[in-house]
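Dear H.,

Thanks for agreeing to be a second pair of eyes. The structure we're designing against is below in token form, covering all 489 positions.
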């Protein structure tokens, strides 16, 4: 992942600032609620929705287990069809390859289809540094680019920006002081702005939703038609795609063309589904390149516990369902990959060296798992990554003797033995007395525990625990409830 702008701050710090932005939170919550409602409606129409999810999960899992085979097969078939396949180990190599192709054609501008992999490697900034202007053609990406902002969502990058804010950006950047604020006014302004560029610029850059191994084809799903323009009008097309995006066959698309649009935008199908394969005289680009991007994916593939992260189809359903994302929006994650999937993908792409707070940016409620069209068990992976963070901390002197580690070790010592737990309960009942307010709640705790009571209610421990009540009412020997150490802990 590019170091240019991603993850300069940890999640708690970034989220704290964004929680003060009431307009952004209102925009995010409104948009995600609308999309989630549409998604629930159209998925309920399919009696085999859960079967489709299971099929999608199996296809993606199978492909990842045999990724070397399917990538090699894709390269062979794409090359046979007239395409050029490049392998990029990291962001720097991908940028170097793309820049070389663009400079080879003496292009000073390129048009772009929305692609998260280009954001991941910092492609726009790299092109600009070499005097080449990248122009986003997806409406939401265009809004973000002209507003000098960052995307907040996979499918709707400008989800955090409302209509009035869009109008202000267009008035300033397109020099349209009299521009109206109706959706059709804004759409017309964007169309006029881009139309001339489609017809003039000869190099385009895209991503890809899927690579099809058995044909060497690339598939893009979109809603506006800008992608179709970029795929057909320029002379040169460069597609940068993560290595995990390959699927075995064209037939497998039948699953994803049903699940992805329903999960992403609440549509029964995407208005534009484009599949292209190599080059064809008189039809589409004269030159086609695919850049296969690793950039930290291979180590994820090697980890059996977290490999399922790479099954992601970037639909954004987990963001729309996530209560944490609803409150903060995408910018708090300090990564192109936001929300629950970003919380597990970003730390792994960065080799757990940065973004170590992201696995904790979740309530583990499981809503993300329930809506994922390829059944990624995100809470499971979050817990796995949290264990990695703990292991890294415990390997250092400071981490081993931190208040957090000492506290958790103490808790483990207490909870593994029933007798110790009983003693701790009694000490807790005595020790809490100075902290309990008249309403029966603890409103303040000392040291690091104060972080809990700052934002949450903490009910005081009852005078009698369930174990004590049971012993009194039923006798300490009833149903094996007698304290006998670890056996009954």
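And this is the sequence the design step returned. I haven't edited it by hand at all.
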């Amino acid at each position: 992942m590019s170091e240019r702008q991603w993850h300069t701050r940890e999640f708690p710090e970034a989220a704290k600032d964004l929680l003060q932005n009431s307009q952004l939170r209102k925009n995010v919550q409104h948009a995600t609620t609308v999309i989630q409602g549409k998604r629930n409606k159209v998925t309920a129409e399919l009696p085999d929705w859960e079967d489709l999810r299971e099929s999608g999960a199996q296809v993606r899992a199978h492909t990842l287990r045999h990724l070397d085979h399917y990538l090699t097969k894709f390269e062979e078939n794409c090359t046979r069809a007239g395409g050029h396949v490049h392998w990029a180990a990291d962001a720097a190599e991908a940028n170097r390859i793309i820049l070389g192709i663009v400079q080879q054609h003496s292009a000073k501008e390129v048009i772009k289809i929305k692609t998260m992999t280009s954001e991941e490697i910092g492609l726009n900034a790299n092109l600009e540094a070499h005097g080449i202007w990248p122009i986003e053609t997806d409406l939401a990406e265009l809004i973000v680019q002209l507003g000098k902002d960052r995307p907040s969502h996979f499918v709707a990058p400008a989800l955090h920006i409302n209509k009035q804010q869009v109008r202000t950006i267009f008035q300033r950047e397109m020099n349209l002081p009299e521009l109206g604020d109706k959706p059709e006014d804004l759409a017309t302004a964007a169309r006029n702005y881009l139309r001339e560029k489609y017809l003039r610029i000869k190099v385009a850059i895209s991503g890809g939703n899927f690579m099809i191994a058995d044909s060497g084809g690339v598939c893009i799903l979109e809603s506006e038609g800008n992608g179709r323009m970029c795929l057909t009008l320029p002379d040169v097309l460069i597609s940068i795609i993560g290595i995990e995006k390959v699927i075995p066959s064209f037939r497998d698309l039948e699953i994803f063309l049903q699940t992805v649009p329903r999960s992403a935008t609440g549509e029964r199908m995407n208005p534009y589904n484009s599949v292209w394969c190599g080059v064809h005289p008189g039809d589409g680009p004269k030159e086609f390149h695919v850049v296969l991007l690793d950039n930290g994916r291979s180590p994820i593939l090697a980890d059996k516990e977290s490999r399922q992260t790479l099954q992601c189809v970037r639909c954004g359903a987990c963001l729309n369902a996530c209560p944490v994302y609803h409150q903060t929006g995408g910018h708090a994650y300090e990564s192109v990959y936001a929300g629950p999937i970003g919380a597990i993908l970003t730390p792994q792409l960065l080799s757990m060296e940065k973004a170590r707070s992201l696995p904790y940016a979740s309530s583990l409620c499981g809503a993300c798992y329930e809506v994922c069209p390829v059944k990624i068990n995100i809470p499971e992976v979050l817990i796995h990554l949290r264990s990695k963070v703990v292991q890294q901390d415990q390997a250092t002197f400071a981490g081993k003797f931190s208040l957090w580690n000492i506290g958790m070790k103490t808790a483990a010592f207490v909870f593994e033995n029933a007798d110790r737990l009983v003693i701790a309960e009694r000490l807790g009942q005595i020790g809490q007395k100075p902290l309990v307010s008249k309403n029966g709640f603890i409103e303040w705790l000392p040291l690091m525990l104060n972080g809990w009571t700052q934002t949450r209610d903490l009910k005081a421990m009852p005078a009698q625990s369930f174990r004590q009540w049971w012993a009194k009412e039923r006798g300490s020997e009833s149903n094996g409830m007698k304290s006998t150490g670890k056996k009954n802990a």
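Two observations from my side: DSSP finds 23 helices and twelve strands in the chain. The chain has two domains: 11-299, 403-481.

Warmly,
E.
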